[in-house]
Design goal:
Layout: H1 6-11, E1 16-19, E2 31-35, E3 38-41, H2 43-62, E4 67-70, H3 74-86, E5 91-92, H4 104-122, H5 131-148, E6 160-164, H6 170-178, E7 183-187, E8 198-201, H7 207-255, H8 270-280
Length: 281
């Protein structure tokens, strides 16, 4: 059962959609009513979809895979940067570079270039550059950090992508769909929820609405990571206990006194035995 409450979503303004004239008919199942020309989202359905998305993301996190968060709008970027950093997941809050997923090898090259500049500053190469070259490298590093710094640890394509506002992030959504990467998103009344695998109908413009939903999503991911960590620790302990038991058994067997063997009477050849019998007679 979800920890998020109806009243909390209501207070955060998660139920406020867009003007009626801006709506997408595909959002009809998630609209509760129209009030003063504005569509009101059914928060009961919002909670149900948050539960579904949270459960799926928890399992992905538990499997040890990465989830990429995307939100470049000003209402969401700081929220994403703060909350997602806490769970050590990659995120994009600046401009989405076309081909970031579909041309992932080029993205990795840019990240490696940033790493190589960092290496130059530590291995002494930086001191061999003239002032102009240093300035160029510094500006190049800053640009790369701004665009790719938050995904530097993403060594492969993510297992899932979470988007705030699929209209603004339509390029990211298309790339994910093209690569069959599961998509999760906060979907407002002006969007098409059928484009997303796990849509969460809610206000994607209000900071409070975005924040409260991200709290629940990130909390589920953290729970998945904690379960994974506990499982690995339990496995490691089981292996260590098994090894310790085997070593103890081996040491016990080595210290136990060997059993005394009964003397074996040597049997004489038949010919010698016959001669002895004759002599006795």
């Amino acid at each position: 059962m979800s920890k998020i409450k109806f009243e909390d979503l209501l207070n955060a303004g998660a139920h406020f959609g867009h003007l009626k004239r801006k709506w997408n008919p595909a959002m009809a199942p998630y609209i509760f009513e129209e009030k003063k020309g504005i569509h009101i989202i059914d928060l009961n359905k919002t909670i149900a979809h948050i539960d579904s998305a949270s459960a799926a993301l928890k399992q992905i996190a538990k499997s040890g895979k990465k989830i990429l968060f995307v939100a470049t709008k000003k209402q969401a970027k700081d929220i994403i940067a703060t909350k997602v950093t806490e769970i050590n997941m990659p995120f994009v809050t600046e401009r989405w570079s076309g081909g970031m997923l579909t041309n992932f090898q080029t993205t990795r090259k840019s990240i490696r270039k940033m790493t190589s500049i960092d290496k130059m500053q530590t291995d002494g190469t930086w001191t061999t550059l003239n002032k102009r070259e240093r300035l160029f490298k510094t500006r190049q590093r800053e640009k790369l950090q701004k665009n790719f710094g938050s995904i530097a640890d993403m060594t492969r394509q993510p297992a899932a992508i979470f988007i705030v506002d699929i209209i603004k992030e339509h390029i990211a959504l298309k790339e994910a769909k093209r690569l069959n990467i599961p998509t999760f998103a906060i979907v407002d009344t002006n969007s098409n929820p059928s484009l997303v695998d796990f849509p969460i109908p809610a206000n994607d413009d209000a900071s409070k609405s975005i924040s409260i939903i991200l709290d629940e999503i990130c909390g589920s991911i953290k729970a998945g990571l904690d379960e994974r960590r506990s499982s690995k620790e339990a496995d490691a302990k089981a292996i260590a206990d098994k090894k310790a038991a085997a070593e103890a058994k081996k040491a016990e067997a080595k210290e136990a006194p060997a059993k005394e063997e009964a003397p074996v009477k040597e049997e004489k050849p038949a010919a010698e035995a016959t001669e002895e019998v004759k002599e006795e007679k």
